[in-house]
Give the backbone structure.
Amino acid sequence: MSEAGEAAVGLARSRRSVRQSAGVVLLLAALLVVPRFANNYYLEVLSEAWLYVLLCLGLNIVVGFAGLLDLGYAAFFAVGAYTAGIVTIRLGQSFWLSLPIAVVAATLAGVIIGGPTLRLRSDYLAIVTLGFGEMVRITVRNLSITGGASGLVGIERPDLFGYSLNSIAAFYYVFLLLAGLAVIASYRLERSRIGRAWKYVRSDEDAARAMGINHAAVKLAAYVLGAIFAAIGGCFYAAKMTAISPETFTFNQSLLILLGVVLGGRGKIPGVILGALVIVIFPELFRDIGSMRMLVFAVSLLLIMLFRPAGIWPERWR
Amino acid sequence: MKKQAILVLAGVFAWALCGTAPASAADIRIGAQVPTSGPEAPYGIDMLNAIRMAAGQINAKGGVLGDKISVLPGDSACDPQAAVNAASKLVSENITGVVGGYCSGATLPTLKVYGDAHVPFVITASNSTELIGANPGNAFMINSTGFDQVKTAVALFKAKGIKTLAIINEGDAYSANLAQLTRTAWEKMGNKVVDYEVVSKGQQDFSPVVTRIRERHPDAVFWTAYYADGALLIKQLRQGGFSGMIALGDGNNSPKLFELAGAAANGVYCFSNPTANFLPAAKTFIADYEKQFHQPPGPYSALSYDGMMLMAHAIKVAGSTDTTKIVAALKATDGFPGVAGPVSFTKENTLARSNFVVLLGKGGQWTLYTGPGAPAAP
Amino acid sequence: MAFYEVLLQQLANGLILGSFYALVALGYSMVYGVIKLLNFAHGDLYMVGAFAGFGTLSLLSGWLGGGWGGIVPSILFSMVAVGVLGVIIDRVAYRPLREAPKLSVLITALAVSMLLENTALAFTGGQYTAFSTALGFAGINLGMVHVTYTQMVLVGTSVVLMVVLELFVSRTMYGKAMRAIAIDQDACRLMGIDVDRTIALTFLIGSALAAAAGVLAGVYYGSINFFMGFLIGLKAFTAAVIGGIGSIPGAMLGGILLGLLEAFGTQIPAVGSEWKNVFVFAFLILFLVFRPTGLLGRPEVERM
């Protein structure tokens, strides 16, 4: 290409990227301003949407980046939520203490759950992770330290520099922030060395091993990082709801999060964000239909998968 | 790529802005928070039907304060987050009150939503004791809590000479709560709980549990969960050769139990609010329900009907749709004649007097049990 | 009851429960074996089968009575109807996605499952439906251990169906085609095997088996509901994996083993029904750690 040509392309690219950045900034500003206008219902749903963005991005690390079919992701979500509950109610400590403890617990959980799956083929892996998910749910249902079937009630909402996080608008911002951090973290991870290692292990495990990648460590890292995302989401979820119970951490929850990851386009970060938004907002849009709600959702889902099997997010916009 | 992103997120933003448009309506809107999707749907739909039937009857007589009642359903799906979304949506649609509440775990976080909006909430099914402490003052529970039911149950067992008990629950907040309360009360009396089992909702095969019970041979088995799975359990217990007493919690007082359990349900005891047998109004209620919906009412239909009637009554007493006045009117309720019994509240907004009676299955339907151990008539 | 009687009874319980799991696991395993799909909708076909059987029996019981005379035709009709439904589902939802990423097909299966469940929910209003038959509880007694004739028929039917299936797969051309497709679909096409037809047949048979299990469950337990497919689907999946997914004798073995684990797990003092599922899953996971391909699974070479 001639020099002038190159310069022209470069100029066009930088103009486009300036437009893109301007777009992103405007968008962020708009999102930050929403609580001034929207009523509590919309804030409630959007907070839930940002939470699921966080969760879906976390699962995306396991399923999308590392290619591990995890059907029990809700277990990590539960670890975070119950850590917050136990730390604030049973131990009477400040909510903020539950965050580092939840990260440690999530790391442990990631290793324990990931460990047995290292030698397994993808579908056996699915049943093992599913099994762990159920085991965690039944355990928190049975033990009294986790409140049994009724769960934990009365989780305190935290104070942040004297400002009490006690309104839905406050949690909207919290979850928006968490989602934003998750997006940044996901991009960083994708482009990092471990992100590349995941890509190789995902496409061809034997070749990756031949290249000297320690596949066990790489896979465990995926589980652990995914677990940490979910656990942090779980802590703040517990604070927002002030009460948690085993019903939230079922196999259906794991499936829902998986749905968000695949719907938007597994592995592609913007797609996953879109998927998360869809799984939260779609059922709410259809609320007025009443008991046909889930039926319509199922049909829509089927149609989407038939017409866009690679996910809603178009393939060429990488 | 960013173009797509901007479009999508702009769409979300626009949708969020929709929430700023003011609602306008001339009628009185009452929310109905029940699960209408998921595995609890049958119970929720029964409750919604009853609430709608009550509203229809009120409207036929001219409505309340000259305005018609319109019922807005809010699907809780028995999930805390979905319930909170439903509650938020109802509040944003300017409801004057809300009736319903089935899964205690889903109802609990909605208390705050309604409390912050000062919307009166008549809870017609959820009765976990956790709700009492979390009540911001605007919620009223018209289903007797577990404490009352345990008293009734234990009294019956004692009168029948039961010494050893087996308790089976389904691992959900309500039945587990009732089971634990029963166990505590039973053991405090110096008796033994020889078997404590937890089964899964929707489980069809109880044979391993039945075998355990046959092995331990308790004098009585107490099932604290709901009629649909309870029916199968009763059948399998009798088929398996268990001949001791079987007692059921109030989630089983539906006539449908007999359809599903057949002859096995005869001779079975059930603790319940007095729907079928007490007030003449109850018989009319059942007939009306069956006529309109072509199936018998569910365990919480009568209470949900009462909840709507009570709400309408409170609005009338308050003389306006000012929610503070309605809450005050509810608090002052004294002996409101519900289908399921008279309603008055304690200062904790729970039912002042236990309505519980003991039902006995006879000839394919529930009859009122008045023998030894039955609670005194209110 | 003497202790050995308890154990015998739990053994009987486990075998009966296991027969149901095995029948449903067979369909799972077959479909997976051929097209590597975890068909989430399979459990719901069991549910649809139960309703189809119920509907048929209600129609027929006027002429044929409510005993086995009416039940057997109901089972056959249900098997055919649901078999066809399975083929339709494959044609509409799965075939277009043959080349798509595996995860997408999984989600499609999930959507089909939701569709079936919610349709049944709409039709039944969520109510449980009583499945009444004229079968009694007569049976044989070994001391305190009671086994009814119905139970024996159930287990017997399951075994017969499974044996027939295994013979079919190992002896007939279709069976050979199924196994060939499992190894290399494209090579099969090149060899002139009608791949789509064979896959459709797989779905037909698998769905028919699930339907049979559904009707038998309705007959045996006496009650059916829109949600019954969900739990059994999960158990069947577990059973198929324990046995070695893709293997038919494996699915049978896995189902029986799962039933026995559940029955005996309930009996163990520290476990009981409260922790039974944890026990079963823990067993499964440990088992897979030592035998990653299940009981009878073949160690597969993953082709690129």
Notes: Chain A has twelve helices and four strands. The mean pLDDT of chain A is 87.
